[in-house]
Amino acid sequence: MPLANAAASIMAYKGLAETPVTALKGVGPKSAERLQRLGIESVQDLLFHLPIRYQDRTRVVPIGSLRPGDQAVVVGEVDLAEVRLGRRRSLLVRLSDGSGWLLLRFFHFSGAQKQALARGARLRCYGEVRNGPSSLEIVHPEYRRIAADQPPELEPNLTPVYPATEGVSQQGLRSLTGRALELLGQHPEALPEWLPPELLQRFRLPELGAAVRYLHRPPVDASLPELADGRHPAQQRLTFEELLAHQISL
What we know:
alpha+beta
């Protein structure tokens, strides 16, 4: 039984459990139908729809220090952009930052996009680095054009990656969970603490609301390896909650 359904059905605050996800801005009937495929019908379901992994978009990585397999934010200037014909037509953009250079490869692109990525453009990009035929490259990076004197916009927290479904984007889920967290901040009693303080202290576990907030928006100094292995106290707290809910249901 998923944590959302187990903990929610037994111990949840009725206000959020009974508030449909359509009460959040931007969720219409079609969006609600797609979210239902993820088991999300209420705001509370959304709060317990937890990330499966995280991305670090909190810092800029020098291109010269990149290695295959890295997922990183880079900032650089376009030296060259050209359409190359081959087995697959692609737009290749050479990006450099003084420490090194790499290629941005696009298989699907428009004429307007090619013009926006012309020589001299300054870009902030995010993606996974891989070995290309002649250099390191990122295929279809997320990117934004920025002014020469503009500091790159970085995320204040680790970026969550959620279980998704067709028609529900990661950006959409991040926006929705952000609104749900705002609602929780306005009504902290929405996730009451059922575990006695001595038990939380004994096992060094955070309160339920704090654990949910942490896992949706881990701070910059959060340990990615610890989160990836499920060893963080916030994750252990929710595992405890799920096991307790299951025991009570029996």
